[in-house]
Amino acid sequence: MKKWLLLGIALYSANLAAFPRANPVPGGIALVPLAPASGQPPIVQYAGSRVTVMPIDNQWMALVGIPLDAEAGTQSLRLQNGATVNFQVKAKQYKTQRINIKDKNKVNPDDESSQRIVRELAIQKQIKAHFTEGAATLDFIKPAPGRDTGRFGLRRVINDQPRNPHSGMDIAAAKGTPVKVAAAGRVLYTGDFFFSGNAVYVDHGAGVISMYAHLSAIDVAVGDAVQQGEVIGKVGSTGRATGPHLHWSVYLNGEAVDPALFLPNKK
Ligand SMILES: [Zn+2]
Q: What does DSSP assign to residue 106?
């Protein structure tokens, strides 16, 4: 009897944690209802990229990652049969964060570094847009304990120069702190990047990708299956970083979205 009760509670809470919160702003997520869920999920594209589609309450739902530079107003999804489904994006102003980086080459890269950056951006663009057919795993945990020191979307001014907005969540943690994968999946890529430093990308299926950067050590290899909470590396300050911390990104349809939307709301 007790066992069944516990199982019921476990299933209920798993259900609650199973989907990100919608926040249809630039850098947020739009949940767009498509059709009653039966058979195969519809194939949906947004700005030329495949979109994550999941059944929610017997309805196929598109989980759209809205680019940070998206315009507010009406946006469209394109279905395989040519039909379009509209959704609304609301405006959002992100705050500015000023940081100082000691390594000047990480702020104003020399020619050799610039060439490396261009190569790496192309690789990262491809990884972020990876789409594996099947269901997505959307039950997420925070990958390391610690204070949020850099929220997603902050407009960055580095050494007094404007740079790209912040594409993830920064979590303060000491060097060597274990980094736990946010959700079950498969290691898609590991590498050493000019800005991200040692980084691990994990594929959670159906276009949901997470990324962990500035690591001092990587403990997994490409192709490894990982369970939620499994240690994939250690906190560090490799790449462009002011000090040891974990940079955590989540991508939907190749676009970085606010990872906080995948965690229980603290407010
Ligand atoms: Zn960061």
A: G
User: What's the CA gap between 59 and 34, in Å, rounded?
Assistant: 7
Q: How far is the CA of 196 from the centre of ligand 1 (A)?
A: 8
Write the pLDDT tens digit of every residue in 232-249.
999 999 999 989 999 999
Ligand 1 mean position, distance from CA 45 (Å) = 28
**pLDDT the model gives residue 17:** 46
The residue behind tokens 């040891």 is: 244
Could you say which DSSP state residue 48 is in?
T
> Which tokens sit at 118?
């261009």
> What is the distance in A from the centroid of ligand 1 to the CA of 86?
32
Distance separating alpha carbons of residues 188 and 209, to the nearest angstrom: 9
Q: Decide yes or no: CATH 2.60.40.1590 for domain 2-89.
A: yes
In CATH terms, the fold of domain 96-262 is Glucose Permease (Domain IIA) (2.70.70)
- Residue 208: how many CB atoms within 10 A of its CB? 29
